[in-house]
Amino acid sequence: MSRVAVAAHSCWSSWLTAWRSRTVWEGLLATTMLLVGALTPAYLPANSPWWPRLSRVGMSGVTWQVIGSALAITGVIVLVDAWLRLRPGRRANTVDARAKHWAVLAVWILPLLAAPPIFSHDAYSYAAQGWLMENDINPYEGYPGLLPGVFADQVAQEWRFTRTPYGPLSLQLQHDIVRLAGFHPYWSAVMMRIPALVGVVLIGVFLPRLARRTGHDASFAAWFGVLNPLLVVDFVGGAHNDSFMMGLMVFGLWLATTASWA
What we know:
By secondary structure, this protein is mainly α. The protein is 66% helix and 0% strand. The longest helix is centred in the first third of the chain and has 24 residues, at 62-85.
């Protein structure tokens, strides 16, 4: 059997092991609640394409804002509980102990991959900044409100007339993603998860390695840094560009520990 086949079989086995854990299912329930909460008036921008669908099924108004907020907050609480149950000292001699951190994370983030950004509208700002660049407007000099329309309308009011604080690489990624999404305002924002997920992968791969190389507990680092609800909710759920930055930082630190500075 080739190395690729062995690696694929190992990954599949780890994936199945994660699915057999009740605690992993608890975390999946939590992120599913976040997904449902994200699809309510509590978190959608005013011009989201979801609004007509919500209106047709009666999911609009203050009542659903409250329900959506309650679902999302409860989801976070349940996710924190699942995370604490998976801490290394507690999960010994159970199926939880055999679940790989990356497999657990892969299960937990499934409902969030195509969900609207939750708890933060920053991804909509990223899309608007990419749209500015497409129209030859420098985001360091202009702001989303200069181009009235759907891209600007979905940006939070406090950022609509604010120049970008982000670096050139981040802006270029935003521009490329807007193009990749076919200049669709909503999907441009959702697809801002692509660099965020790259950052999550970098953290998941290199943080345990960095801990091991520096003489620390790799299992604890994976639990605390990779499965942390802040990473799940903010980096994946919120599609926040801090994820890519942190991923590159962790990779850089790991790379620094592998070099000889003699």
